[in-house]
Every structure is written in C-alpha cells, then in structure tokens.
Amino acid sequence: MEFQAETKRLLSIVANSLYTDKEVFVRELVSNASDALEKRRYAALTGGGGGGEEAGSNMEISITTNKDANTLTIADTGIGMSREELIDNLGTIARSGTKAFAQNLQEKGEAAANVIGQFGVGFYAVFMVADEVTVYSRKHGSDVAHCWRSTGDGSYALSEATNVEPGTTIVLKLKSTETNFSQRFHIEQNIRKYSNFVGFPITVDGTRVNTLEALWTKSKNEVTVEQHADFYRYVAQAFDDPRYTLHFQADSPLSIRALFYVPQSHMEKWGMARQDRGVHLYSRKVLIQSRCETLLPEWMRFLKGVVDSEDLPLNISRETMQDSLLMRKLSTVLAKRVVKFLQERAKIDQAAFISFYQEFGQYLKEGVYTDFDNKHEIAKLLRFESSRGTPGELISLDDYVGRMKPEQGDEIFWLLAPSRDSALSSAYMESFKAKGVEVLLLYSTVDEFVMTNLMQYSGKSLISAEAAKLAVEDSSASGAAKLSVEEAKGLQEWMTKAVDGVKEVKLSSRLVDSPAIVVGHESASMRRMMTMVESGRA
Ligand code: ADP
Ligand code: MG
C-alpha cells in the first residue's frame, strides 16, 4: 500500500523545523526567481516558446518592502507558472519543477543549466515568517494569469487574476513578530549575505543591490587585478589589496571554482583572539555556509575567499553537506592546492615570499604540527636564519640540505637561542664553527616545537645542536697542554661531586674555546618553562 501523508503536519515541519535561520526564506525566494529567469533565458535561446523574443530585456528580480503594511513583495520577470504548474509545483510538497527542468536538459545531452532548486521545499520557508502568501503568476507567452494564496495550514486557493505582467510576484503578509523583513535595510543586508552573486539584477525598493560579479565562475584570464582587489575587499571586509591571489578551477573529481586571497596582514600577531575562518562556501553562486569550518585545515584561517562547488550534496535545508566524505575530499584537494600555490610563489618571487613568511609564518608552523596530511609539504615553506647567512637572511630547509657537509651524515642541526649573537657565541656552536658545519638558528620556542615535531626532513634527522655529537678531531691545534689519563679521571670524579645535579662527566673533543658544556639536559625552552613553573608564573 502507498504511504499517506499528513499534509498539514508535513507542511508545518518543512516550514518550521528545517532551517536554523528564518532569514533564509529570502534566499529561497530569490533563488526561485533566479531559476525562473534562467528558464526564460533558456526558452528564448532555444526558441521553444514561452520565453518570448524579448528575453534578455528586463530580466530582473525586484523586491519591495512596505513597513506600514508589514509586507514584503518579491517579483521576477522569469518564465512564470501556468495554472497546472502552480498546482504541481507550489501545491505539491517536494515537487521541484526546476529539478525536472534540469533533468530534461541532461537527458537531451545539453549542458547542465545553471539552476539552483532541487528539493521542492524551499518555497514553504515563507511560512516561517508570513501569515499569508499570495503568488501572482503569468507564464511568458500566455494571456492568462493566476493567483495562488495560502496561509500554510494545509490548503490553498487558486483563481484567475487580471493585470498581471509575465513572470511571478509573491506577496508576503508578515507575522506581527517579523517586522524586520519589511524593512529595507534588513532585506538589503540579507541579499548581500546570501544572494549577492545571483546572476540577475536584484533591486530593493528600486535600488540595485547585487553589483558584484561571481568572479570565481569566470575563466582566469577574464578577471583583472582590479576586479580581484575589489572582490577581495568585499570578501575580507578589508581596505587594502590582496598579497596573493589564487584562482583555482577544477572539473574532476569534483567541480570546484575557488578564489583564495592572502591579505597583507592579520590580527593574531597582536595577540588578538584566534580569528574565524575567512572562506565561504557557495553552491551555484548562493551562499551555503559563511566562514565554513570544514573546508580548509584550521591553520589556513588567514585565507579569505570563496569556494563554489555545484556537485555538493547539500542537505535539504541547503545549510550543510549531506556527505562528509565528499566534503573531506574537497577539503583535501583544496588544502593541497593552497600549499602547492605557496611553494610556487616561493620559487617565482623569493622576496615577496619572505615578506609573506614574516607576516604569516606562524600559521605555516602551526600547519606543520597540526596538519598531518600536509606537514612535509608545508615544511618546504619554512624559513630560518642560519649560522652561515647574514643577520635577517632566511633560508629554507632545502637550501640547507643542498649545502650540507659529508661529515654531517644525515643530520640537520638547529640551535634555539634568544638572539643571533648569543647563538653564535654559544659553547654549543664551537665544534660546528670549527668544522664549518651550518646550524639553523631558532629564536622562538614554537620553532623548536616545529623541529621536534617534524623530526625528519627529506630523509634527514633534525637534531638540536645541544644534543649533537659532532667531534672536532684536531682540537690540539692550539698546542695547549693536555691532561694525562689519570689527571682527567681525577677531574671527572671531582666534578661529579663538586657540581650539584651532575650525573656524569665525560671527556669530549667537541669544544674548542670553552672548557666545559652541559649536555643531555632538557631543552632550553623546557628549562625556561620549568623556572616559570617554579616561580609560580605558569
Ligand atoms: P525548488 O526550488 O527546490 O524546486 P521550491 O519549493 O523552492 O523548490 O519551488 C518549487 C517549484 O516551484 C520550483 O521548482 C519551480 O518549478 C516553482 N517555482 C517556485 N518559485 C517560482 C518562480 N518565482 N517562478 C517560477 N516558478 C517557480
Ligand atoms: Mg527553490
């Protein structure tokens, strides 16, 4: 037997329990209007009638607010609906005329139309905010118009109407609690948030609202630097120009259109709270999630931009994704592309990259120890000062590896110190200096954390200079007198007792100028942390 439906209940569920935010009803109506215009354009192109030869002119969505009457009107000059279509599409829950339209095109082997609707429930979102909804519709090419009216209680009235232009006009009599939506300012904001990139002009009380183009859908060489800068300022709510621009498009395994911008600066370095994500998820130019958290690894939160994928299996409220596996796939592709992009930039313009690194290096370091999938690729982007370079000069791990000495074996050395001077004059540096072996200089505990977390780079171990066992064979060059075996033994025994906390004293050949160093202890930063704990500051 067939299932029956409690239509009244079902309608109430669809209208009231589907969405987290009431405000999305505007997005749903605007999306429907956009779909109707798209269908009209298609009809005109194919000469299939209905569209009329005049398609292309007056294609628009006009919204009018009336604060006094507490109404909101959304009118489009799209394809319109016949009597049957009103019954089929608005009178049948979960029936999508748009989906049928897109499928029809697909079956004919034509390019997928740029339409948004698919579930056949978006329209009913109006009942979250409206007591009564009236739809006037006249199909393009037809002389008859109809009026569809419902209070969302399970039934609707349908009659013929006069004085209706081709297209569809929807009038919402708003609930007395929803006066926001009859205010122009509020609706304008809503359009800017969700529907700013809809491909047809949208006006609110006669003023054009959506003036920005969906740049990400255009091909790369069609977009100018100026357009990118404008778009960046919109999406990042910034006033400067982007430092880097990545326009990324892929068709398989997923259709992806993405725009990523790296700003000039960020606030976290001033000790401000961790910033929110800056990349928004769109599907077919309509906002799905702003500041989407599942799109990119967290360390990429400094990026601003937009990702649009029409393949996304949206859940029915169009607020999230149904398929988290696909979402992860998308995220993997995007993250890898961003890292590759930064690697390319580092090669193309080193100076610009160093400037980027100085501003955003902390995020890359965070990436090394939080982004397991990409850590080794991110490590290629790290830059450090080195004992061989000049003050302020930054080198990559690849630079270092490229000039390693054979006697280093497979070891990359680093030393954590408060400053370059103290690093270079440290006793730990003596044997490295004597042998001409390069040491990377780290000035922050985060760097040390990154090194110990990374452990290896291109098959070589990352070793602290404090723990290194690099011997200097010809330390007798100075001709200084050496201790006899007995004398040395005596000194060792004496020192073990004399110096508190010393476990063992060994003879070493790694020192050149200093008489002794401490080895095998916890790291300098650990020591600092311990003193802080002891003095009660941590
Ligand atoms: P969806 O957009 O997912 O199909 P909706 O509930 O939003 O679902 O709309 C149902 C159907 O009603 C649409 O598929 C479309 O056929 C029709 N429709 C809705 N609004 C309009 C409109 N403004 N102009 C023409 N047809 C419309
Ligand atoms: Mg819809």
How would you sum up this structure, described in words?
This protein is α+β, with helices and mostly antiparallel strands. Helix content is 33%, strand content 18%. It is built from 15 helices and 19 strands. It has helices at 7-16, 24-46, 83-90, 97-107, 184-194, 225-236, 324-348, 350-370, 375-379, 397-402, 420-424, 430-435, 445-454, 485-498, 524-534; strands at 61-66, 71-76, 130-138, 145-150, 156-161, 167-174, 202-204, 207-208, 244-250, 256-262, 279-283, 286-289, 304-308, 383-386, 395-396, 411-416, 440-442, 456-457, 460-464. The strands form three sheets. Strands 5-4-3-6-2-1-7-8 form an eight-stranded mixed sheet, with helices on one face. A hairpin with a 6-residue loop joins strand 3 and strand 4 (145-150). The longest helix is centred in the middle third of the chain and has 25 residues, at 324-348. It is elongated and about 115 Å long. The protein starts with 6 loop residues before the first helix and ends with a helix. Magnesium ion binds next to helix 2. Residues 28, 31-32, 117, 122-123 line the site of magnesium ion.
Summarize the helices and strands and which ones pair or pack.
Blueprint: H1 7-16, H2 24-46, E1 61-66, E2 71-76, H3 83-90, H4 97-107, E3 130-138, E4 145-150, E5 156-161, E6 167-174, H5 184-194, E7 202-204, E8 207-208, H6 225-236, E9 244-250, E10 256-262, E11 279-283, E12 286-289, E13 304-308, H7 324-348, H8 350-370, H9 375-379, E14 383-386, E15 395-396, H10 397-402, E16 411-416, H11 420-424, H12 430-435, E17 440-442, H13 445-454, E18 456-457, E19 460-464, H14 485-498, H15 524-534
Parallel strand pairs: 1-7, 11-13, 16-17, 16-19
Antiparallel strand pairs: 1-2, 2-6, 3-4, 3-6, 4-5, 7-8, 9-10, 10-13, 11-12, 14-15, 14-17, 18-19
The chain binds adenosine-5'-diphosphate (ADP) and magnesium ion (MG).
